[in-house]
Backbone:
């Protein structure tokens, strides 16, 4: 299976996926840490992929999304953005709206 | 390797001549920046596209020599 197919499988089988450096408990980069904090604050259930544990995905995700940095957030198979966009959307109330309308909050 | 703030600003302005660019050196180490870019060309574009426009202007430096750029985009 190619790396594109692997990533495709991950983003299509999970409602919310965060590609990040480290894990939600131990983020290895300030930007990933910020992304985790936003998702946790919103009470979103999400899957995380530690790109530091998988070099193929680490480089593959940048091509797949055509986006140069990590973290990257996918919601329902669609690329939403990195931590800056998450923060902008959060501050504008758009992320809360998305979480509510798509039913992504923890029960 | 770090990048100088005026180099970042220059590359963004080369691609978006109308842009107002504010660069802040967050840590004072020439390596962690915040950039706020205001351009008419962002109007009507989703956030992802706005940020992508700036990343493209930086010509592959984003995610490479430029690790830490906290980006905010807006329209005038």
Residues:
């Amino acid at each position: 299976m190619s790396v594109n197919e692997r990533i495709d499988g991950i983003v299509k089988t999970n409602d919310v996926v965060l590609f990040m450096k480290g894990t939600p408990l131990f983020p290895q980069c300030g930007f990933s840490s910020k992304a985790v904090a936003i998702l946790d604050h919103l009470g979103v259930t999400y899957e995380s992929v530690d790109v530091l544990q998988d070099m193929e995905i680490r480089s593959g995700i940048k091509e797949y999304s055509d986006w140069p940095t990590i973290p990257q957030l996918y919601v329902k198979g669609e690329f939403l953005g990195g931590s800056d966009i998450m923060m902008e959307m959060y501050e504008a109330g758009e992320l809360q709206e998305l979480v509510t309308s798509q039913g992504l909050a923890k029960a | 390797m770090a990048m100088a703030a005026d180099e970042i600003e220059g590359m963004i302005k080369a691609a978006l001549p109308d842009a107002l660019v504010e660069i802040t050196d967050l840590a004072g180490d020439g390596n962690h920046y915040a950039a706020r870019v205001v351009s008419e060309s962002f109007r009507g574009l989703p956030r992802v596209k706005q940020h992508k426009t700036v990343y493209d202007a930086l010509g592959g430096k984003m995610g490479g020599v430029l690790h830490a750029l906290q980006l905010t985009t807006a329209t005038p």
